[in-house]
């Protein structure tokens, strides 16, 4: 996949591939699967790899990239690697050490993109989900604008080429954009986005501010029991997607991915299956008509598979706003 055709320009001048490979690996899946899957993804043609400290697979993702560099399949500069700052490290003095810890795990000198994973702080420490004696999550209060200033320093040091946010609503984005002394705008906002939650208003807002929207859960998520209500509708079984899949002789998954790419949304797809990865990179091989794009717009029901209920009590909980 050549970058010229399949990348969008970020507001800091760097380019991000419009299709990315997600590496979230649920607890029950051995971490070695992340290593294997990332290697397969690079072989299939993915050049944008999305990971995060909280996924606990940075080491495996780094090994996969290293092995593909050693095989001569890619050079480091061919790979666009995203990682994320977890909620337990939002204190400004923890930001750079957290990124350096991720870089050590990845065995890389820099990440292409570093994101604040949520605008919500949790108690600092080694526990990813710190809880009290009643099993309740221990939240913390940190001004994410101060966190952002520490992210800016990481960019200035060259530890991250670009910096952005994830799971921010438009008001939270505005707080950063209007921050006195802002040095670097967020280049993107990574959020759940699919035909049932098309984020139309947030997308328009981001475009107006020259911020790229990045979609996770673009295929309706992997429905992991820990996070997703098992009675929620299965996106890829939607009859409209099925009809369009027949019409274009493509899978329902490819229709859902193409919908995003055509809207100018950078889209992450996750799979552990080689065949699905190979299929997902075919997203550039066809185009949906304007009429069919409108039909897909009509599927929106503002339905969130991942409402992040565990942080509902935090004043910065991002999903109570309309967008």
TrEMBL record:
Q: What InterPro entries does its record include?
A: AKR (IPR020471), AKR1C (IPR044482), Aldo/ket_reductase_CS (IPR018170), NAD(P)_OxRdtase_dom_sf (IPR036812), NADP_OxRdtase_dom (IPR023210)
**Coiled coil ranges:** none
Q: List, from the UniProt record, the residues annotated as the active site of this protein.
A: 55 (proton donor)
Site description Lowers pKa of active site Tyr, residues in chain: 84
SUPFAM superfamilies given for it? NAD(P)-linked oxidoreductase
Please give the Gene Ontology molecular function terms for this protein.
oxidoreductase activity
Q: Where does substrate bind?
A: 117
Keywords, comma-separated and alphabetical? NADP, Oxidoreductase
Q: Name one Pfam family in it.
A: Aldo_ket_red
Q: Identify the residues that the record assigns to the NADP-dependent oxidoreductase domain, covering every copy.
A: 19-300
Name the protein family: Belongs to the aldo/keto reductase family.
State what protein this is by name.
Aldo-keto reductase family 1 member C13-like
Native organism:
Dipodomys ordii
Q: Source organism lineage?
A: Eukaryota, Metazoa, Chordata, Craniata, Vertebrata
- The gene that this protein is the product of is LOC105980413
